[in-house]
Write a structure and sequence with these properties.
heterodimer; A: mainly alpha; 77% helix; B: alpha/beta; seven-stranded parallel beta sheet; 7 strands
């Protein structure tokens, strides 16, 4: 899930990239050559969390939000 | 009294938020039939509600403008539903902040160019023939002051927006004589989700407000007013032009 975590990290930190993921997840999955499992986690766990983020995530909140989402991704992978 | 755009059919890409949303609303106020086009369908539906659109005067088109087949379908569906196409506002765009040029990643360049420049090209490509069927129309491309001057925060965004300006000139040179006017606007800082997101912090956004010569950034409805004028017959002698709308910031800086 390293690639998915990388995508999630960037989407948390950059609103424009977040938009690309939210509304073009299949395209992002293709460009990052994600597996079916990785794509599934991207299109469920990651999109759900990204949809709820403020615009933008304030700089001081980015590391915490990235860590939270990375944990959610790992849990989804094991689930 | 009939509005300036009474019964004209206009597609607005990026209509789900920001300038695109304000433009949909303004065009609808002027009597246009508006197709709210966006890959964010929920946002597009919200725009349609806000402008009190119904099945006779509006439609929502979920479209990723980087995909030519989807753009082609969007135009075909519009003409099929409303019988014609008179206007196109190319507002869909993404802004990914990047490091300086030598560290820009391919994926950020490609994602940006595919939407901002290739997408605008596709929309013009498929809209122009539809407009020519009924004698012409008007296209307004939304560039940015990032496309006019050098910027530090996004290389691909700035280059894509510069490309939109030139695409406008080329299209105008080729199609004005057939009745399709093509113009461009270059907004400065406008209070939209994209701008708030790209400034990356509430503090930076507030600094942009305070430092501006007018003491504030622009509003989406102010940009929508310009777009509506350019789309209407009141701008019948305007083609190939780029209008800076930035509250005077560029004039004061140069």
């Amino acid at each position: 899930m390293d690639k998915v975590i990388e995508i999630a990290d960037r989407a948390v930190a950059d609103y424009g990239f977040r938009q690309a993921v939210l509304y073009g997840a299949d395209d992002v999955a293709r460009r990052w050559e994600l597996s079916d499992q990785e794509t599934s986690v991207l299109e469920t766990t990651v999109l759900q969390r990204l949809s709820a983020l403020p615009i933008p995530v304030q700089p001081e909140d980015v590391p915490g939000e990235q860590a939270r989402l990375a944990e959610m991704i790992r849990e989804a992978d094991q689930g | 009294m009939a509005g300036r755009m009474e019964n004209k059919v206009v597609i607005v890409t990026g209509g789900g938020s920001g300038i695109g949303r304000a433009t949909c609303y303004r065009l609808r106020q002027e009597g246009a039939k508006v197709v709210v086009a966006d890959r964010n369908q929920a946002g597009a539906e919200e725009t349609r509600e806000l402008m009190e659109g119904n099945d006779q005067n509006s439609a929502v088109s979920r479209v990723d403008i980087s995909r030519s087949s989807q753009v082609k379908q969007m135009v075909e569906d519009t003409v099929s539903k409303f019988g014609r196409l008179d206007g196109l506002v190319n507002g869909a765009a993404i802004l990914i902040r990047t490091p300086p040029l030598v560290d820009v990643e391919d994926v950020d360049w490609d994602l940006t160019m595919d939407t901002n420049l290739k997408g605008t090209f596709y929309c013009c490509k498929y809209a122009i023939p539809a407009m020519l069927e009924h004698g012409g129309g008007s296209i307004v491309n939304i560039s940015s002051m990032s496309g006019v001057r050098g910027v530090a925060y996004s290389v691909p965004y700035a280059v894509s927006k510069a490309g939109v300006i030139h695409l406008t000139k080329v299209a105008a040179a080729q199609y004005t004589h057939q009745g399709v006017r093509v113009n461009c606007i270059a907004p400065g800082g406008i209070d939209t989700p994209q701008m708030r997101g790209s400034t990356a912090s509430a503090e930076t956004f507030q600094e942009r407000n305070v430092e501006h010569p007018m003491g504030r950034v622009g509003r989406p409805d102010e940009v929508a007013n310009l777009i509506t004028w350019l789309t209407s017959e009141e701008a019948s002698y305007v083609s190939g032009s780029t209008y800076i709308i930035d509250g005077g910031a560029w004039a004061l800086a140069t």
